[in-house]
Design a protein that fits this description.
Length: about 325
């Protein structure tokens, strides 16, 4: 079912009619969720509004994304007139912020996940946009102030979700936006290095453990790795240091689908999926109440890790 978008102009008008605005990205926020939130909030602050951003704590590699002073705690977030959900395919993705979203009088949903449920009162979903940051740039460009800080936020979101302009979601518009942002003298090499080429020692060890656990299934068509909480702890790290693993799995030649599973708790498992052309891993994730993009998606499964993997493999068997 396709639902109609509100126009970005109408959304901007609704936002600017408010004085106190709250923004949030998805649980376990990534570069795009963080960049989109902190860019839009910064621009709203420069427009004389009170803007607060609700995000779960995030890894150190994102710490150079500017405008962190706009992060608020749920206690400080009361009383907003407008709530903007960014980079969230559905309300559940807001995590603990979902309740505040429900309570806020005006609810706006801006996102680029094809599986988006249009859960806002106003919605703008472009499944072809490289990132939510790219949509935020369209919203702001020529309308609201974009300072060097906001430009750096948007650039971080843009490169994160395109894997450094590698994914097929990268468009000429993406590159034009990147060029516009580079002209604002942002530290683009530092941002790139921090997001893609720097990691803690524990993350390195966790990566090694996960890759050691990797196996080929279905005659080599599927590559799959798991990591348990005990293994993560033995490396001295946390489950905030797992983002890069799926990209290494995806790179295994001659595989069609890559899967990575980790324990959130003993009975709750997060699955991440990547698929080649012709393999819709968003549909796979949706079988388990998850979602995402056709080539990159994820879900949370209430089962022990071995069982969760088995359930997903049973669905993959049908896809091959
Ligand atoms: Mn995104």
């Amino acid at each position: 079912m396709t639902r109609a978008n509100d126009s970005l102009d109408a959304i901007l008008e609704a936002i600017l009619a408010a004085q106190h605005i709250l923004l949030a990205g998805h649980t376990n926020p990534d570069g795009d969720a963080i960049g989109a939130c902190l860019a839009l909030a910064g621009s709203l602050e420069k427009s004389g509004r009170t803007a607060g951003v609700l995000l779960e704590s995030y890894g150190e590699k994102y710490s150079l994304i500017p405008n962190r002073h706009l992060l608020v705690s749920p206690q400080e977030a009361e009383g907003a007139e407008v709530f903007i959900a960014l980079d969230c395919g559905d309300e559940k993705r807001l995590g603990a912020a979902e309740e505040l979203f429900r309570k806020t009088p005006r609810k706006i949903n801006i996102d680029h996940h094809k599986s988006n449920t249009f859960f806002g009162q106003m919605n703008y979903v472009d499944g072809d946009a490289s990132s939510t940051s790219e949509i935020v740039y369209r919203l702001l460009k020529g309308k609201l102030p974009i300072g060097r800080e906001e430009a750096a936020c948007l650039y971080a979101g843009l490169i994160y979700d395109t894997g450094g302009f590698r994914h097929s979601s990268t468009s000429p518009e993406t590159m034009r936006m990147a060029a516009d942002l580079m002209e604002m003298e942002i530290p683009f090499t530092d941002i790139y290095h921090s997001l893609f080429d720097s990691r803690s020692f524990s993350e390195l060890k966790i990566m090694g453990k996960a890759l050691e656990n990797a196996e080929l299934l279905f005659g080599g068509k599927v590559v799959c790795a798991t990591i348990t909480t005990a293994e993560i702890e033995a490396c001295g790290g946390s489950n905030k240091e797992l983002d890069a693993i799926i990209n290494y799995l995806k790179g295994v030649r001659n595989t069609e689908i890559a899967c990575f599973f980790y324990e959130k708790t003993e009975t709750e498992v997060k699955g991440s999926f990547r698929g080649n052309e012709g393999y819709d891993v968003c549909a796979l994730a949706q079988k388990f109440d998850g979602g995402g993009h056709v080539k990159a998606a994820g879900c949370t499964i209430s089962a022990p890790i071995a069982k969760a993997k088995e359930m997903v493999m049973a669905e993959i068997a049908k896809m091959l």
